[in-house]
Design brief:
Length: 408
């Protein structure tokens, strides 16, 4: 079949007026993800304006006049791109987001916590902070993996991925636009296991990590599609050397043993488990590949082939508008409640405990930092004004800058 005929056929199948019948029953139209080259503006039915979930909540009152399903179409999906370090997944995910006209969310990192809503970098406070309270990100970990703050770093890394995934769900349900994530909360344990295997994470800290994970992960909806870019360890080592990032190149962490453990955890645990719930595409990306082929493979996937009895896609099977409204309310309005599930006591893990005097100094210094005294929107010294009728809005610091709406 020629490409022209194939495109025409896809446009026909994507027409909202097309209906399929079987034994007298009107079936739901089977729809797949479509790329920007496959569908035109004429193929897209009118949709409500995106709900500004970054600026205002979505309450049950709003549900009465603003429904969720009219915004959703075949591209209202969560896609995760995973792969080892230096596999080229970030470049791939950006290009794929452009082709599918979806929102790209870069890999979650601790700058999303350390840089506050006013743009102030809390890492500047480190020289004044007790050592146990200083920031610790991936750069610090690669330089000194046996630091006492390594366990806190890995747990915070999980928490920021959890936060980002909530934002991704809120975005899909509030706007109808699909989201492509560069790694996600579901694969974070791969790195925790690799750290534990090399002695960077204690047994007690690993146990606490899984307590927090088990307390939170079931609140989410698993992705529709996971794309894994497979690159063997020798090629990963070569890519790390080629891209010449100083803290990677000189790191004692990124050894063949550590990278092999990451590969093992991906293939033996993560991919095996997530494939029970999401569609999966795996590519040998040693020398990169043709993204057009990947797009064609994605367009062939029938995401509606599962019924309510199947484990795959069951997170996304809802019959009633009220059910979709409750989901949107949960992710777009109740993020702070979900984030509170990360607050698991850590008294039995020494490296996660901060002494009282150190904690007191930490909070005093933090309160004096620009934009840290009050909740966002109430700091007059940062230009905030007007206190009447303000409501608490969930923090969306994991979104790209173009998606944030910072009050002035």
């Amino acid at each position: 079949m020629s490409s022209l005929v194939r495109i025409s056929l896809k446009r026909f199948l994507c027409n909202n007026n097309t209906k399929l019948f079987n034994e007298g029953k009107n079936l739901t139209l089977v729809r797949t993800i479509t790329s920007r080259t496959t569908r035109s503006a004429q193929d897209r039915p009118p949709k409500p304006k995106p709900w500004p979930y970054q600026e205002k909540g979505y309450t049950l009152f709003h549900y009465l006049y603003d429904k969720t399903t009219p915004r959703l179409d075949e591209n209202s999906k969560i896609i995760v791109v995973d792969g080892p370090v230096a596999s080229g997944k970030s470049k791939f995910a950006k290009e794929l987001a452009t082709e599918l006209e979806m929102l790209y969310l870069p890999e979650a990192n601790l700058d999303m916590i350390y840089i506050n809503s006013y743009g102030y970098d809390l890492k500047k406070l480190d020289p004044l902070m007790p050592e146990s309270c200083r920031t610790h990100d991936v750069m610090n970990f690669l330089k000194n993996p046996k630091h006492r703050n390594t366990a806190r770093f890995q747990i915070q890394q999980y928490i920021v991925r959890f936060s980002q995934y909530i934002d991704a769900l809120a975005h899909v349900l509030s706007t109808g636009e699909g989201v492509i994530l560069d790694r996600c909360v579901y694969s974070d344990f791969v790195f925790a296991e690799a750290m534990y295997s090399q002695g960077y994470l204690s047994k007690a800290a690993r146990k606490k990590y899984y307590e927090i994970r088990d307390n939170t992960i079931h609140e989410l909806l698993r992705p529709h599609l996971v794309i894994y870019l497979d690159v063997p360890v020798p090629k990963v080592m070569e890519n790390i050397k080629k891209r010449a990032i100083s803290y990677e190149k000189d790191s004692a962490v990124l050894t063949p043993q550590y990278l092999a453990e990451i590969e093992k955890q991906y293939k033996q645990n993560y991919l095996k488990e997530i494939s029970k719930h999401a569609d999966m595409l795996i590519y040998d990306w040693s020398n990169e590949g043709d993204i057009e082929i990947v797009v064609e493979d994605i367009e062939r996937i029938d995401f509606n082939r599962f019924d309510i009895q199947d484990s795959q896609m069951k997170d996304w099977v809802y019959r009633l508008e009220e059910e979709w409204g409750c989901l949107r309310y949960k992710y777009a309005d109740k993020k702070e409640k979900l984030m509170n599930y990360c607050n698991v006591p850590c008294y039995e893990v020494p490296e996660l405990i901060v002494e009282a005097l150190d904690a007191g100094k930490y909070y005093r210094l933090l309160e004096e930092a620009p934009g840290q005294r009050y909740q966002k929107g109430y700091n007059t010294n940062m230009g905030d004004s007007g206190y009447l009728f303000k409501t608490s809005i969930p923090h969306r610091q994991t979104l790209p800058l173009r998606e944030r709406r910072i009050e002035s």
